[in-house]
Design a protein that fits this description.
This protein is 24% helix and 8% strand. By secondary structure, it is of the alpha+beta class. It has a two-stranded antiparallel sheet. The protein is globular, with a radius of gyration of 12 Å. The structure holds iron/sulfur cluster (2 copies).
C-alpha cells in the first residue's frame, strides 16, 4: 500500500523523492509536498520512513494481510 504524506508535518525536503528505489514519487517537484504518483510500486522497504527528517510526516498504509502477520 502506498505511503501517505502528512501535509501538516512534511517540510518538503525532498528526501523521500530522492531515496525511493521504486520512484513512487516520480514527477514530484522539489521543495513541494511529494506526490504519490505510483502507489502500486511501493514495496514497503521503509527507506522513506527511516530517512524522513520530519516527525510523523510520512507513513505506510500496510496491506491487510501484512497487518494480520504483524499482529
Ligand atoms: S517504502 Fe520504499 S518503495 Fe515505498 S515509497 Fe517508501 S522508499 Fe519507496
Ligand atoms: S522526507 Fe519527509 S519531510 Fe521530506 S518531503 Fe518526504 S515526507 Fe516530506
Amino acid at each position: 500500500m502506498p505511503p501517505v504524506i502528512n501535509k501538516k508535518n512534511c517540510t518538503a525536503c525532498g528526501t523521500c523523492i530522492n531515496i525511493c528505489p521504486q520512484d513512487v514519487f516520480w514527477g514530484s517537484e522539489l521543495k513541494k509536498i511529494p506526490v504519490v504518483t505510483y502507489p502500486e510500486e511501493c514495496w514497503h522497504c521503509n527507506a522513506c520512513i527511516f530517512d524522513c527528517p520530519a516527525e510523523d510526516a510520512i507513513k505506510l498504509r500496510m496491506p491487510l494481510p501484512m497487518m494480520a502477520v504483524i499482529r
